[in-house]
Amino acid sequence: MPIGNPPPQVASEVLGPAGSTARAGVRAARGRRRGNQRFHRADRLAPYILVAPAVLIIAGLRLYPLALGVNFSFTGDGDRNGQAVGLDNYSALFDDPLFTAAMRNVGLLVLLLPVAVAIPGLLATLIYLRVPGHRVYRGVYFFPAVLSPVIIGAIFNLLLAFDGPANSLLGAVGLGPVDWLGDPDTAMYAVVGVHIWATFGMALVVFLAGFATLDPSLIDAARVDGASIPKVVRHVIVPGLSQTIQFVVVTTMIGMLTSMFGLLYVMTGGGPEGSTYLPEYYIWFQQGQMGRPALASAASTVLFGVMLVVGMLQLAVLRRSGRED
């Protein structure tokens, strides 16, 4: 008879009850091991299952339309509708003075972004430090965020009119009137200023939420050491709110590039002389007024690329400054 493991029946007769108990223990251990493997496999899959609905929604409602828009930007308008035209639309964009003016205004928005972020950050700091009346200020500062851009634009059209209250106030202090919305050199600054006033309430709320995560003992320790408020802000508050600042910078930039259409339409209509055009207003003009959807898609693609590059550069700068602090 060949030497080897005895058959189960023979092993049971030789080993008796002890052998049966051993085999039962082995089977139980194998079952536990298989159960643990299934549990760990399910544990690894759980995050993917949880994020799958959000990913599907983003892919279906954001990424797929984006891909369609990019593809559409390489087709023609009018008589060439549906025909592949290569980069003709992009060439036409950068030959259009209105689009180049819109891109220059994007550069202006990037330069003014620190102001748009610093204002709500400073006001949130004052509220957090409980200046007198801070509860009232919290509601007052947020109130413009609930108003319609159309209403805000109409109000400031009256305030900034050539014979309006703003110029009357300047005249009272001996300064000449300013054509706020009729001068190409000042119109864009006026619209951006109104936009910052109308929207900084949301950034203020985000900053206040960030302050809720800040350890107050750090500020107390800095005050005990005799640090002034500017030093507390620079060395304690700003590093502690670095993630919040990054979020506000990116969302504010996106808002300035994609949420000013209402103000532009009501306050200036893109004028004077196209000086207040932004890419989103240009996209609407080409799509809705000129009937050139392919050219509008090309402008949308350029705007998306600009927002992506600017956002990544801003995050890189903020992360580097946070590490240096």
From TrEMBL:
Keyword field: Cell membrane, Membrane, Sugar transport, Transmembrane, Transmembrane helix, Transport
Organism: Glycomyces artemisiae
Pfam family, one: BPD_transp_1
Transmembrane segments: 45-64, 106-129, 141-162, 187-214, 247-267, 294-318
All copies of domain ABC transmembrane type-1, residue ranges: 102-314
Protein name, as recorded: Multiple sugar transport system permease protein
Family designation: Belongs to the binding-protein-dependent transport system permease family.
SUPFAM superfamilies recorded: MetI-like
Top-level taxon: Bacteria
InterPro entries: ABC_transporter_permease (IPR051393), MetI-like (IPR000515), MetI-like_sf (IPR035906)
Gene Ontology cellular component list: plasma membrane
GO biological process, one term: transmembrane transport
Membrane topology: Multi-pass membrane protein
Compartment(s) where it occurs, according to its Swiss-Prot or TrEMBL record: Cell membrane
